[in-house]
Batch of 2 targets.
Target 1
Amino acid sequence: MSELVTGEAVALELRPARLPSRALAVLLDLAVAVAVYVAVTVALVASTASLDVAAQTALSIATFVLVLVGGPIAVETLSHGRSLGKMACGLRVVRDDGGPVRFRHSLVRGLIGVIEILMTFGVVACIASLVSARGRRLGDVFAGTLVVRERVPVAPAGFVPPPPPWLAGRFAELDLSAVPDDLWLAVRQCLTRMGQLDPRVGWTMAERLASDVAARTGAPAPQGVPPAAYLAAVVQERQVREARRAFGAAQGGGGPAMTAPAASPTYVSPAAAPPAPWAAPSVVPPAGPPAAPPAGPAQAGGPEVTREAPSDGRSGTGFVPPA
């Protein structure tokens, strides 16, 4: 992925096209251009047979320039960076800031492409694309453009397993403002791919990320808590805070009243959710007596209060209807 910054200071993540796909797109464009050039040349030869040699040579040069140079420039300008070959390969030419190309960008790319593609049979373009970090040829460098992939396969969203129930609400007072977004992304990817990694590798990676998160928050992980469980609990605490902030903003904007989610999330039952990948046999949740239900008035030792209807026929609320 390549990060491009637009004029509005918005970061775009685009995937630059690789050399094989670009070469295939160029070959398709050249095949179409050569076919059109041959057809136009045959038509001109048949229609200008009565002209002298100088006029025929001038027409041949003009046809070459218009078809093999002007044609790709016009197609790329009118299609906003999508020639026939690029459309077939799912590519597009964009500016360095991610915007659509204009005539001057296509003109510079087309004129330099005559030298590095047509005259050198693509050798210079291949070398420049291999040397460039984003696969740009000389025409892209001078024009300020980039060829990116439009059809990017969408990966399925990974499932972040919930933390153990005995960690619910344990990090409610943790300061998460100093944790950067790239660290949150790394933690989420580690948790979603934990089941695909080797247990030792996953444990080491989670331990390193847990130490980074603890260094940013200023509070180390509790003793005896697995690093992956600690990361899952912190991530869920961040999601709860973001949901509470979003619901609070919607409530203050004059919309319908919405109830913010509780601090302790609802966990999936063990029969429905996959086993947590961080479950270590040596780590056992702290044992303790189960939480007793809240005591009612009779259990708390207070007098039992009962409501009985008065004997004079009035309702138990004390309301007397008018005579």
Target 2
Amino acid sequence: MRASQGRSAGLGLALGSAFAFGGSGVAAKPLIEAGLDPLHVVWLRVAGSALIMLPVAWRHRDLVLRKPALLVGFGLLAVAGVQACYFAAISRIPVGVALLIEYLAPALVLGWVRFVQRRPVTRAASVGVVLAVAGLACVVEVWAGVGFDAIGLLLALAAACCQVGYFVLSDQGGEGDDAADPLGVIAYGLLIGAAVLTLLARPWGMDFSLLGGSADMGGTQVPAALLLGWIVLIATVLAYVTGVISVRKLSPQVAGVVACLEAVIATVLAWVLLREHLSAPQIFGGVVVLVGAFIAQSQAPKAASGPVAGGVPAQSGAAVATEGELSAPHVAP
């Protein structure tokens, strides 16, 4: 019963995280169209969130000595890496293609769990990934305007690998007496990500006066500061908090597939708020993604037949030593 309740709570948090992340583009696009550089919007998003989470970082300052590799890995991969690689990719290849490649991450997570951690995965999770990726291809209409750019494709794949780091590192260290508090990990990840993005975005050249004006959202003038507040508070702080905790309650592979709903949510919100209408293939793809996510989360991961391979270096250099079972205990903030 407790495991079932934990899974239900984890699924709800994962859906909430997907909704929060999915709303970032709807709020960011009007700011970009108003004159802000996309990379500057990313910097505002991460730096503002880091500032809000600063008291949390101070409260969990012991993590700096206890889990330095985890914090650095989360900041470089889950925060700065995903953002920087994705925006670099869409400067060379269509947004839809970049988004599809980035959301190959759930399949890569399954590969990590199966071949690196040496844990079996359920058939349901595998089928769910296949359906989710196929549905995403319809949502982003990948067949429209595809052009081969090796560097752009590699950058999009790098964003997918960084997203794998997000799911794996969110699961890492969630058990035992030495468990890392998820809020502390997020706080320091945002601080490190903000520092890295400051070097990439060079915000001192940004026109801050644009934030005092308004931006057009589907024909309605909305204060730019309000849009930025949504991006920081909802699409970043709330999204990361619910996302990391959901991975702790579910598992990296299941939470990763549910996260594919972000693309569907982003498309629907763009339809409602930005008047970007959906085509029939996009609607069909959204249904397929929903089906894939439901199948993937419908069964718990199989118990490992042997000891979990401990000390395996993650992409950040942190060791993955958690079994990540569906009923893994949640570390309360």
